[in-house]
Design goal:
Order of helices and strands: EHHEEHEEEEEEEEEEEEE
Structural class: mainly beta
Number of helices: 3
Number of domains: 2
Number of strands: 16
Radius of gyration: 27 Å
Strand order of the largest sheet: 1-2-3-8-7-6
Strand content: 35-45%
Largest sheet: 6 strands, antiparallel, barrel
Helix content: under 10%
Shape: elongated
Distance between the termini: 39 Å
Length: 295
Amino acid sequence: MKISVKKDKERIRLGSGKLYIVERDDNALSTALASPAATLSYCESIATDENLLGLISGGAALEYTKNAQTIKDDLEIVSKTVLNTEDVTLKSGVITWNGNTLTKICETARVTDDPILGLRQVLIGGIENADGKTYALVFVHEDKVDGNIYAVITGKNTAGFKLEFKKDAATVVDATFTAEALDNTGTKLAILEQIPQSGVLKVTSEAGSTNGKTKLTLTNTLGTGESYAYKTAATLDMPAYLDAATVGAAAGNYTAWNGSDEITATTGNKLLLVVLNGDNKVVKAGIVTVTSKAS
């Protein structure tokens, strides 16, 4: 989804979303926060119909709270504030639910289905029946205009639940999931939002002045210490932001480009053009299908 740079600071968040839940998998989480791309991949792997906790009623609320202590001298000349604790909770109400839903929000819930009689039995209670499971939750707020927002926590429902059956209202199961650490640094909440793709180069290719050459055209201004490099092949993938790039003559490496010279390339192949910072890491990239002058 492409979002204009202007709208990046003018977006209005409106509407609810969907809440997905799976049992926590430390192996999957070990790489989920490594980069924005890794977080998106993790969210998309969980945000499937089969993992939907239920459709939401009344929206969802993410809350971050902290406890800080401020220490002062008697004359209040000097002071120091220290962060002591942090808490993150995700609260939501589920309007479409069944007995299996309750096992995700109540750790002592046990379910037995009898498909012959068409019955589902749910047993709740007994501390010795607690399953000890922790869950990964992904909340997805979808917005085709201003971009999606994803929120990730792991934890369990710490608020119990209440089932109210009323003649004029749907029965909504409310839950409050209290977050645990996502990683070994204590991260409790990961938020991913779609932003303008300002790092994508718009490149065009046209036939050059001599056989086998192509002329590239783009609108971009190099920053201090930045440079261009390219590679061409039948198929190429976009690199990740800040990927390390090797420039040199060896196969598979990038070739330095001065921004104006025509490039030897084969019509129909792909050409990947990147902008490198002073550490030879990718900060912008674009792929174009090559058009070169025929012999």
